[in-house]
Amino acid sequence: MRELTYSYDVVVVGAGPAGSMASYYASKNGAKTLLVEKSQEIGEPVRCAEAVPRLENFGIATDSSFVRNYIKGGYLIAPNGKRIVVKGGTDGYIVERKIFDKYLAIRSARVGTNIAVKSRVIGLDHNGEGYDVIIKHLDEEYVVKAKVVIAADGVESSVAEMAGLKTKKNPKEICSCAEYEMVNAKLLDKNMMEFYFGDVSPKGYVWLFPKGDTVNVGLGVIDSKKKAIDYLNEFLENPILEGRLDKATPVEFKCGGAPVGGPIKKTVKDNLMVVGDAAGHISPLTGGGIYLSMDCGSIAGEVAAECVKKNEFSEECLMKYENRWKEKHYKNLMKDLKYKNILQKLNEDELNAIADAIDGDLEDIDLKKIAVKIIKKSPSLLKYFKDLI
Amino acid sequence: MYYFQKVQSDTMKVNHEKCGYCGACVGVCRNMAIELVENTIIIDDEKCKNCKLCAIVCPLNVLEE
């Protein structure tokens, strides 16, 4: 593949949303950039519930080729069936990820990024000035020179680990997920997400994300007795659904691991940055990571291009990336991590008590305000929420 | 000296018929023994220390000793 015979300023590994945004901004700001994707198809396999935030914030048009549905809010459903409506602050889209990811890669290629598909990074050697990136494509090995490597290789997190950073995750920090994309489901509202909590999905939740003609029905569990797929098959028959999935049938199966343990400690070193799932850029509470990956990827691409202009690729120079993403997202990530840790400890009775303490709809998910309400009604829950208020 | 016989293998094995090739197992393998190549999980027996962390995160119960 001729793309692998050149030398680059920036080599981005992984053509998910983080990698495509990073390569877009690196190329747009003048860096000679290669985006490496190990699969033969960008966007495959899908391992996601496919909810994305408002894309207008990224200057990306909500293209009908990938947008499947608009989402105006969601229902949080307690084990006793009590539904709490959340509107505002949660709107966004359900997309066809395999088309969305390819769209972002095309967008990056249009500003000059070279893309190597079916190309797998098998080694990284520091050569004093940057990295020799060893890439295997169709059984042939290539050595590609890069001044900066951006590791955006997802939950697998192997590339930065090869360079000596600690990116591999603790199994208790991985939410193990399984999902059917189904047809013929009856939804509460075709523009509202549904979330179910409790023993149906230990330490995680079940989601129903309406996707136009279909709905993504999935769940995530952490360190559970049974496997995610077993909980999912059981849930389809759960009485809480009142038979709404009885006639539903799948057209796709998806599974995956969401790294929900919070961001990794160190996301830069000389000539290298880590972004997206590999860096833990994913909400520990919701498991949503597209927005964070795209935003942190954008920052990484911009900083990489700045460093190319300065011809300075030390950890100190690249640290601007870590400082920028931390300034914008670290506080929220750590807050979500705290909330997740509380949620994981609650049993079904406590979840029901919380749901019963909330009257009416929620305008947004401000857990601090909600916690105050809950404790007024159920003081016994104070032990979980005392750190929040 | 029959007690030297192995009754179980000392590395993890993948049930390829069951695998959904999501790569969650790859993300927890500190020995870098697992790789996802296209739609196949490959375990390097030389690197696998049989810690079984990969089996914990598998959504489908694909990894066994």
Topology of this protein?
The complex is a heterodimer of chains A (389) and B (65).
Chain A lengths: L7 E6 L3 H12 L4 E4 L14 E3 L13 E11 L5 E13 L1 H14 L3 E3 L2 E8 L4 E7 L2 E12 L7 H4 L11 E10 L8 E5 L8 E7 L2 E8 L6 H8 L13 E11 L8 E2 L2 E3 L15 H21 L4 H31 L2 H10 L9 H11 L4 H4 L4
Parallel strand pairs in A: 1-2, 1-9, 2-6, 4-11, 9-16
Antiparallel strand pairs in A: 3-5, 4-5, 7-8, 8-9, 10-13, 10-14, 11-12, 12-13, 15-16
Chain B lengths: L12 E2 L9 H5 L5 E4 L2 E4 L9 H5 L5 E2 L1
Antiparallel strand pairs in B: 1-4, 2-3
What report would you give on this structure?
The complex is a heterodimer of chains A (389) and B (65). Chain A contains nine helices and 16 strands. In chain A, strands 1, 2, 6, 7, 8, 9, 15 and 16 form an eight-stranded mixed sheet that branches. Chain A is of the alpha/beta class and 389 residues long. In chain A, helix 1 (17-28) packs parallel to helix 5 (290-310) and helix 7 crosses helix 8. The mean pLDDT of chain A is 95. Chain A has helices spanning 17-28, 97-110, 159-162, 228-235, 290-310, 315-345, 348-357, 367-377, 382-385, and strands spanning 8-13, 33-36, 51-53, 67-77, 83-95, 114-116, 119-126, 131-137, 140-151, 174-183, 192-196, 205-211, 214-221, 249-259, 268-269, 272-274. With 65 residues, chain B is α+β, with helices and mostly antiparallel strands. Helices cover 15% and strands 18% of the residues of chain B. Chain B has helices at 24-28, 53-57, and strands at residues 13-14, 34-37, 40-43, 63-64. In chain B, a hairpin with a 2-residue loop joins strand 2 (34-37) and strand 3. The longest helix of chain B is centred in the middle third of the chain and has 5 residues, at 24-28. The two termini of chain B are 24 Å apart. The mean pLDDT of chain B is 90. Chain A binds chain B through residues 38-40, 45, 47, 118, 120, 154-158, 161-162, 168-172, 174, 176-178, 223, 227-229, 253-257, 259, and chain B through 20-30, 32, 35-39, 53, 56-61.
